[in-house]
Specification:
elongated; 4-stranded antiparallel sheet; homodimer; 11 strands; 8 helices; alpha+beta; 215 residues
Chain lengths: 215, 215
């Protein structure tokens, strides 16, 4: 494990702090679909080695909205939210692909962070990045019309999956975007009628990515 | 100025760090309506002594949504966002009442924070609190219907202003809630027809707060 890939400030930590972190870290591999973290737990920091994770919030009625995704070398801080007072929201993290990751237990991380200015400042940066993701999302929700959001989502999926043929149900898309399946189906049909996508069971094929981008 | 009122970790700072902050701080009084911070600037940390500030984001079309409020002894971190990399959103801060505040320039604060683990960790806590505010707001927007949001807003205003007679226009409420004036007017009229509020020019009088709470 190359610590500097995750923590650019690694060299600024004392040897003792480096050792504390290195001693506490555990490796885990999870298969696609696994719930790695849910609201009640304090799982710890998740360091993605290879794979793809999704962080979402859940409504009381079980509706979901994706707040961000984590790819190779990304760090998930909010799965260790217990170590930061004042975090009063709960997220769920699931694997969207088979994923290998490192877990630093929240307690070990907190102890080092309390003593280490470089690590505390870097933690600040991670949180600020996620905060920015959420603010962006909120602006999307508030001010972008749904066609733009859906087009953006399809293009993002396309880039992530590296294919025009997305194997995803309308239900799953609705969960990602925090809306109802019917809303997604209606808009996808509109996109199809406009020749931008082609729909078949469980598949959305992107036919005209250029026009989706224009949206 | 009592630093401990704003920074509970004050005693954990070195005398040198305490002095650096104390030397840099400036006092300012602003009258109601003043824009204290807008997106382009990096004003610094705002420490509210007495008064009320509002932080909001703006859409390209000039629509607003309030993301949080700051009351006595609160600290605004995002007005110093330039000091934290990765913050990629812009906010505007206005005074909702005549307000006296202390300003710590971003550069001075950042220098101390880089060296001081207690201050960096406390900064983390402040950011986490604002992050939680925004997550709460997003859940409201996504999952609560507008009648609940409006009822919540009126009750919050009532608590802040300590009166049942709110001097606020529908336009201003719409800006707070990131929606159109017509939507607010329609819902307020519904509330009036249900005997929960009484409307007159520029005034919303809360008649039945109990029923608003039930919403």
């Amino acid at each position: 494990m190359v610590w500097k890939d995750y923590f650019p400030v690694w060299d600024q930590l004392t040897p003792m702090h480096q050792e504390k972190l290195a001693m506490s870290v555990r490796r885990r591999t999870v298969s696609k679909g696994t719930v790695i973290h849910s609201s009640i737990d304090c799982t710890g920091l998740l360091l993605v080695e290879r794979g793809q994770l999704r962080a979402c919030i859940l409504s009381d009625e079980g509706r979901e909205i994706t707040i961000y995704r984590l790819l190779d070398q990304d760090i998930c801080l909010l799965s260790a939210s217990c170590m930061i007072q004042n975090i009063q929201f709960e997220i769920m993290i699931t694997a969207e692909r088979d994923t290998s990751l490192w877990i630093i237990p929240a307690d070990s991380y907190r102890k080092v962070m309390k003593e280490s200015a470089p690590l505390a400042n870097y933690t600040n940066e991670i949180m600020a990045a996620r905060f920015s993701d959420v603010m962006w999302l909120m602006e999307q929700i508030m001010w972008k019309s749904f066609d733009k959001r859906l087009a953006g989502f399809l293009l993002e999926e396309r880039a992530l999956e590296e294919t025009d043929v997305l194997k995803i149900t309308h239900e799953a898309i609705a969960n990602h975007l925090g809306t109802a399946r019917e809303v997604v189906t209606r808009m996808l049909r509109y996109f199809q009628s406009e020749g931008m996508v082609k729909l078949s069971r469980g598949v959305v094929k992107i036919v005209d990515s250029h026009r989706l981008e224009q949206l």
